[in-house]
Amino acid sequence: MSNVEANTDVCIGVEISSTAMRAVSMKGMVVGKTSVEPLSYKTSVVEQLSAFIGRCRADLGGAARVGIAVPALVGPGRRVVEYSTHIAEFSGLDLAAALGDKSGDSVSVFNDANAAGWAEYQIGAGRGARDMFYATLGTGVGGSFILNGEIWMGHGGYAGEFGYVPVREGGERLEDIASSANIIRRTRSRVNQDNTSSLADVPEGTLTVSMIVEAAKAGDDFSQLMLERTGNYVGIAVASVINLLNIERVILGGPIMEAGELILDPIIETARKRSFLPAFETTKILLGELGDDSAAIGAAMLAGMPR
User: Fold this and answer.
1) pLDDT of the residue at 1
2) Rounded CA separation 303/110 (Å)
């Protein structure tokens, strides 16, 4: 950890994904500087994260607290990563201690969907609501419940596993269809059936979700169809949330939601068809407002709260 004198007015939030580290500074409810660095698996992820936090702290003149958002199950003490599919090095690790925080006073660890959901609830598309469900569609598919102004973790601490909601006969889960890798897989497997698509010329192994989104925005019919079909499956899972909880708001974030109405409209239409109508009519389904910084912002906010 950094030896820079701590600035008690500033918190740093860091999101670490399978590809990058992103940090934001927060003073109260005001978002400050954003920094991004790619992640390498050629060296220790913990060492890279520690160095990144140190540079961010030094650049900001120090920060008393750091919140870290990780794609993982996190223990109730805000220190231990119980399991991570996407960053295996973290599984079973007391991440706060590994980063040099032995006392637990300066580093807190959070699930990334919970952090992003909290940020949207406080200053994004969920502001003003009492109850909210947040879903992120990216490398994985995650979710977060905020009920009566608090993140609801469930009895064992595992609530919000939106990616595990079954959406097809045979038991296929939403993550099997709507995660980034699976959207790319489904698109690649079908693009050869439509050689008029601009995606047909993309070399094997280089297709990204961003390419699909940009092609759809540019009017590519095939890309729009793939987003619509993805949205239909997301809508099925959203309907399950609405039917069970009659939630006030559903906020959707992550890279695929950069497509905006091209994917939001089929989500809403399918959710409407699959939901108990009175419950659906009292739920707002909205795009997240904080974009790529949502999880880092939420981690900073949560780190600054009393334990």
Assistant:
1) 40
2) 9
Over the stretch 241-263, which tens digit does the pLDDT of each residue have? 999 999 999 999 999 999 999 99
Contact 95, 81 (CB under 8 A): yes
DSSP labels, the chain: ---SPP-TT-EEEEEE-SSEEEEEEEETTEEEEEEEEE--SSS-HHHHHHHHHHHHHHHTT--SEEEEEESSEE-TTSSEEEE-SS-GGGTTEEHHHHTT-SSSSSEEEEEHHHHHHHHHHHHSTTTT-SSEEEEEESSSEEEEEEETTEEE--SSS-TT-GGGSB-STTS-BTHHHHSHHHHHHHHHHHHTT-TTSGGGGSPTT---HHHHHHHHHTT-HHHHHHHHHHHHHHHHHHHHHHHHH--SEEEEESGGGGGTHHHHHHHHHHHHHHS-HHHHHT-EEEE-SSGGGHHHHHHHHHHTS--
- What residues does 70 pair with on adjacent strands? 111
Distance (Å, whole) CA 241 – CA 85: 24
Structure tokens at 306: 């009393």
Tokens (6 digits) for 275: 């939901």
- Picking from 125, 9, 136, the residue whose alpha carbon sits closest to that of residue 62 is 9
Cα angle 240, 268, 123 (rounded to 5 degrees) comes to 90
**Structural domains of the chain sorted by starting position, each given as residue range(s) with its CATH number in brackets:** 11-112+293-303 (3.30.420.40), 125-288 (3.30.420.40)
CA distance 222 to 227: 9
CB crowding 47-80: b at 16 or more within 10 Å, else e: ebbbebbbebbeebebbbbbbbbbbbbbeeebbb
Cut 0.70: pTM above it: yes
Determine the average pLDDT of the residues in 73-88: 92
For residues 304 and 26, is the Cβ–Cβ distance under 8 A?
A: yes
